Amino acid sequence: xxxxxxxxxxxxxxxxxxxxxxxxxxxxxxxxxxxxxxxxxxxxxxxxxxxxxxxxxxxxxxxxxxxxxxxxxxxxxxxxxxxxxxxxxxxxxxxxxxxxxxxxxxxxxxxxxxxxxxxxxxxxxxxxxxxxxxxxxxxxxxxxxxxxxxxxxxxxxxxxxxxxxxxxxxxxxxxxxxxxxxxxxxxxxxxxxx
Length: 194
Prior knowledge:
By secondary structure, this protein is mainly alpha-helical. About 80% of the residues lie in helices and about 0% in strands. The longest helix is centred in the middle third of the chain and has 47 residues.
């Protein structure tokens, strides 16, 4: 069994309410840190004249990225870098939570084993998020030098992250629907047998 299959199976075995709820609680904690001062989004909004994180946009150009870095100034770029540091924790916790949720729904929907690796999609999203964060931190670290290719790559990573995120949401919705149908079908068969 290869590494991906082992990781997928690890989450399939552990996808229960007793593991999903602590992961959800940890995500809420990380989000609380990201939404409060001194390192959260309010501090960034204050120093950026109301513009939030670039990675919350579907994509951005090099000019948009460097325009934000200019408006932030040295202190503001420090605030943004710290916020991106917390975003590393968000990426990890969010991936685990979504992998557990997908695993639970895959099991409840009685999905064939060939689909079980869908539970790894959140890790792709988070890997793209981490790469995007590294790119943005590197761009800020070298500012005012402009690296057009680096800025374009950061924007592409952001777009790719959002595409995979929407794929995860679509999988959650489809599996949730399949799970509900499976439950209804099983209940109807049980009632017929009785």
